Amino acid sequence: MGSLYRASKLARSRLRQLSLLSSEPSKLRPLPAPEHPDLPCRRGSCSVAGPAVDLGGYPPERIRNFSIIAHVDHGKSTLADRLLELTGTIKKGHGQPQYLDKLQVERERGITVKAQTATMFYRRIINSSDIHNEEQSDYLLNLIDTPGHVDFSYEVSRSLAACQGALLVVDAAQGVQAQTVANFYLAFESNLTIIPVINKIDQPTADPDRVKAQLKSLFDIDAEDALLTSAKTGQGLEHVLPAVIERIPSPPGKCDLPLRMLLLDSYYDEYKGVICHVAVVDGTLRKGDKIASAATNQAYEALDVGIMHPELTPTGILFTGQVGYVVSGIRSTKEARVGDTLYHARSIVEPLPGFKPAKHMVFSGLYPADGSDFEALNHAIERLTCNDASVSITKESSTALGMGFRCGFLGLLHMDVFHQRLEQEYGARIISTIPTVPYIFEYSDGSKVQVQNPATLASNPGKRVTACWEPSVIATIIIPSEYVGPVITLCSERRGEQLEYSFIDSQRAFMKYRLPLREIVVDFYNELKSITSGYASFDYEDADYQTSDLVKLDILLNGQPVDAMATIVHQLKAQRIGRELVDRLKKFIDRQMFEITIQAAIGSKVIARETISAMRKNVLAKCYGGDVTRKKKLLEKQKEGKKRMKRVGSVDIPQEAFHELLKVS
């Protein structure tokens, strides 16, 4: 009976498939396997119901590789979801929103941290007057979801290098924002075909004509080229993929050349090891091939090869122009460097241009909130860096906080995301020291040193500092025109140099400033949002080092420097910052049985001081009258005891004190 039931069930499923095939074909029907009888059949398993994937049926001219770039909260992830649904890559209503944003921090903050890829199969039907002579063309579309923030600009540039075009998404109500400008120029400098998409046209405040005028004014994009869509309601989405096929060129690689692959990103899987997202530029990759890295000269075996459709879908092969994944036995993501060239071992190829190692621009100390939790923090950092090899980690020791780590990050957002992931995903409780940037100091003997940790900058009477340099950034700020005055004042206070000032339209101003990276590393963005009632948008890109008058500011408790609180500041701001630091510390350090002096000093010169008086027992309580000499003797004895306690006593610095220091700019 069981076999009869299974046979009946199989027959019913076959009938359902036949009825579906006999119905009218959809223009956006998912297409796992096109018919190309003249090409060899190379099949692999597929993660969705349907025939196995035959990648051999998609020559480069039938492939389109593109990305979606946008400012935060302009609908990039929602548009990606709709395209995946329209092509049948995912089922509508199944799975979580923002499908390609795998990390919790990405969904919470509306940003992309890790590059993701998704392969879509699309059948384009060209309408004809004769319904029996409709032309059908099958395409393979690779969506490469890239990080959008400048902190990950190198990763973005490598991901865009695998694309030939990009959808530039702009909110129909908010218009062009700071990241829109930055992302446009990243794509423009990568020679990508840019398709403007004005999204959220269903909003009551949408003004597509105004946005078209902004695109023309800032980027010289014709209004007729813009697509009007609403990813939320689906309005206008039927024009997006045809525009991708018509406007974006196919990959330029050659099938008959030796294999060259661009490594887009990687992540660690507990069962498979490191999984690399790759774009095949030239040649063909097959499962079992021996491959090598141009950056590390290490050789590996391609243990598994496939595409993301939308999850890992083994195919056993990747052809020229295709984007997928490879599992090769790499044990650490530190070996899988973004931008690296992978090629067949024992072959000689020219590495793909543009590779460079990670450049760390923001440094901070990380310590466990409870000194006994160092091993737990160490374990959490080891697990997290398995998926984020761009962080530099070295162990360090602090007199105030014990054992911890000195961490180097690509930028401010990278640091914030790393801290958030440590706390949310791995449950670590951390204390972060004041973020700093890499400074360069030149001494009188001509030697130069780069300082990433202010505590390591020792005062040497034999060598005098003759010159200092600090990194700078080019900041882009877009604000409503009524806030121009306060923003100019803020940038001037942060030692900014105005480079450009213009009006996008009658309502919004566009400004560019050169700012020291140190001045925006803590609270610049929050203050900018505050003085503009939340309407400002801000982005920045790395610029050159510039000369500056810098000094090391030490914090001393009872005459002993606290290395975790040392910082490097501009000479003109040292007095104010020193005063603010000691005032804040006085509020958060608890009174002890002995007096505590808090000092801010530059070298041997104290520039600010506060005193926390000691808690004192009333030793005169038992003296009822009597000779005054008896009282003086008791007070002198107490005073001597306080001195001895001060020499051997230690000051406990609460976690809140370090958090307060982060607010002092």
Automatic annotation (TrEMBL):
Reaction(s) this enzyme catalyzes, per UniProt: GTP + H2O = GDP + phosphate + H(+)
UniProt keyword list: GTP-binding, Hydrolase, Membrane, Mitochondrion, Mitochondrion inner membrane, Nucleotide-binding, Protein biosynthesis
Major subcellular location class: mitochondrion
Family matches, as Pfam families: EFG_C, GTP_EFTU, GTP_EFTU_D2, LepA_C
Enzyme class (EC, first level): hydrolase
InterPro entries: EF-4, EFG_III/V, EFG_V-like, EFTu-like_2, G_TR_CS, LepA_C_sf, LepA_CTD, LepA_IV
Positions that bind GTP: 70-77, 145-149, 199-202
UniProt protein name: Translation factor GUF1 homolog, mitochondrial
Organism: Acorus calamus
